[in-house]
Every structure is written in structure tokens, then in C-alpha cells.
């Protein structure tokens, strides 16, 4: 099989498995799944905010899902792991399903959407955007947008810092599409500058700790030499002259002895 076809088939398979698990785990906080090939088979990691519902009593629900995935998608030895989402309010897929569940129960779409927006902002999001399209209140389809906070629309921040989740809801009047976009406050924008707290205080303390040059020397160790008088200087020079003459004479005597030995 060509490499391109292999990756295309793998992506199609993952998309189909995500759609299947999304329908089977409806109203259970399903936030997506990941497929990973292992030497023992295929590992499927399900992210959810309510792991107890996904696992079931004594793992009965997980066993049913494992058998269904194995038979429907022809996967050899599948194993399903359940991962808990720590902050479900910052997961767009979970929030989209919550809005769909509230509308399905009969709650007004505006009230349901604004309550979710407040929860998301309170949980620590920089901005939220909710799109609801379809026959919401009348026989004519329309598009409603709800926003809160600041959210990037283009560029690298929109690609890297914004997470999106989509879900669909079937009503008597038709199908509603719900899309939620969340930008967490932890994402650093390109124009933001963070100043480290206390860095200027540290520099001032370092300046205070710097000792002057005199403190590096111990005054007790410094020995002051006395300047000799003129008479003492003359005596020193005389002694050095005598020593030089003695060395010269000794050198001359050695040369004379060498000459006499050569003549003999």
C-alpha cells in the first residue's frame, strides 16, 4: 500500500471511530479520542469529563465499546483507556455538548448559551465564541453568534491558541449545528510582555552587596617599607660595587690561568 493511501485510510478510520464514540457516549462529557498503534494491538484513549459513565459498572460499558469497535472497524486487539479531562469548562467539545443537551431538554438557547459563556470565562478563558445555526425559533434557518472576552480571528494565535468543538442536535424542526471556540488565558499573545516580579529589587540588592576596592585587602597584612637614608643608600651602592669588582677579578684570574696552561 502506498504511504499516502495508508495515512489517508488511517485518518478516515480515526474520524469514523470518533463519530461512533460520540454517538455512543452521548451526554457523558465525551471530548474526543486518540488512536495509537502498539505491538499488542491498537490503543484507543477516550477523553471525558465523566469517566464513571464511560467505564460503567465493573467495566461493562468499556467492554461493550471494545467489542463494538472491533467488529465494526475490523481492529485487531483494541484496548480502550479512559482519560479524565481536568478542566472541562475549557474544553470546547464538552461545552458544545452541554449546550446541545440543554436545548434538547427544552431550555431556551439564549439562556443555555449565556450560562455556558459565564462558566467558561470564570474558569479562566481569555475569550469564547459560540455559533448556533439552524431553525432555532422559527421555520426559517438563521445563524446566531454569542461572544465573550477576546478571541483571535486570524494569524498564528487563531491557529495555535484557539480550540474548537462541533456537535449537532436533531430537533423536530431540523438539525442544529453548535460550534464553540475557546481561547485560554494561558496562551501568550505575541504582543504581550511579562515582567518578572522582583527582578529590579534583586539588582539593587546585588549593588548593595558589592564591596569597595579597599575592603578586598586586609589592612593588617599590608607592611609598609621604610625608605632608607642617603648614607645607607651610599653604603648599599659601595657594597654592590665591591661585589662587582670581586667577580670581575675572579674572572680575570681564571682567564690568566687558562692562557698559562695553553702555553705550557
Structure at a glance:
The chain has 264 residues and is of the alpha+beta class. The chain has helices at residues 3-24, 51-55, 60-73, 92-104, 109-124, 155-160, 199-209, 230-263, and strands spanning 30-38, 41-48, 78-84, 125-134, 142-149, 163-170, 175-184.
Q: Would you write up a description of this structure?
A:
Pfam families: KH_2 (PF07650), Ribosomal_S3_C (PF00189). Part of the 30S ribosomal subunit. This is Small ribosomal subunit protein uS3. Belongs to the universal ribosomal protein uS3 family. The model has no long low-confidence stretch (mean pLDDT 77). Helices cover 46% and strands 23% of the residues. The strands form 2 sheets. A 4-stranded antiparallel beta sheet has the order 5-4-7-6, with helices on one face. The termini are far apart. It is α+β, with helices and mostly antiparallel strands and 264 residues long. Among the domains are: 3-86, GMP Synthetase, Chain A, domain 3; 89-184, 2-Layer Sandwich (Ribosomal protein S3 C-terminal domain).
Indicate the topology.
Layout: H1 3-24, E1 30-38, E2 41-48, H2 51-55, H3 60-73, E3 78-84, H4 92-104, H5 109-124, E4 125-134, E5 142-149, H6 155-160, E6 163-170, E7 175-184, H7 199-209, H8 230-263
Domain KH type-2: 17-86
Protein name: Small ribosomal subunit protein uS3
Family: Belongs to the universal ribosomal protein uS3 family.
Amino acid at each position: 500500500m502506498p504511504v499516502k493511501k495508508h495515512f489517508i485510510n488511517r485518518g478516515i478510520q480515526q474520524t469514523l471511530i470518533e463519530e461512533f464514540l460520540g454517538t455512543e457516549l452521548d451526554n457523558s462529557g465525551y471530548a474526543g479520542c486518540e488512536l495509537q498503534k502498539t505491538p499488542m494491538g491498537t490503543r484507543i484513549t477516550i477523553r471525558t469529563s465523566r469517566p464513571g459513565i464511560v467505564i460503567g459498572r465493573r467495566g461493562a460499558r468499556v467492554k461493550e465499546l471494545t467489542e463494538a469497535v472491533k467488529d465494526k472497524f475490523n481492529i485487531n486487539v483494541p484496548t480502550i483507556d479512559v482519560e479524565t479531562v481536568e478542566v472541562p469548562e475549557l474544553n470546547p467539545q464538552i461545552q458544545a455538548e452541554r449546550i446541545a443537551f440543554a436545548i434538547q431538554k427544552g431550555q431556551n438557547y439564549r439562556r443555555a448559551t449565556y450560562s455556558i459563556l459565564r462558566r467558561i470565562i470564570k474558569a479562566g478563558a481569555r475569550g469564547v465564541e459560540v455559533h448556533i445555526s439552524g431553525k432555532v425559533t422559527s421555520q426559517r434557518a438563521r445563524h446566531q453568534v454569542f461572544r465573550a472576552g477576546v478571541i483571535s480571528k486570524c494569524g498564528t494565535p487563531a491557529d495555535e491558541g484557539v480550540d474548537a468543538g462541533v456537535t449537532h442536535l436533531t430537533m423536530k424542526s431540523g438539525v442544529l449545528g453548535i460550534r464553540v471556540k475557546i481561547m485560554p488565558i494561558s496562551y501568550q499573545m505575541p504582543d504581550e510582555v511579562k515582567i518578572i516580579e522582583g527582578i529590579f529589587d534583586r539588582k539593587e540588592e546585588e549593588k548593595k552587596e558589592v564591596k569597595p576596592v579597599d575592603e578586598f585587602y586586609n589592612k593588617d597584612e599590608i607592611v609598609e617599607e621604610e625608605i632608607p637614608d642617603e648614607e645607607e643608600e651610599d653604603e648599599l651602592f659601595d657594597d654592590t660595587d665591591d661585589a662587582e669588582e670581586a667577580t670581575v677579578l675572579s674572572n680575570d684570574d681564571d682567564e690568566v690561568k687558562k692562557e698559562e696552561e695553553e702555553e705550557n
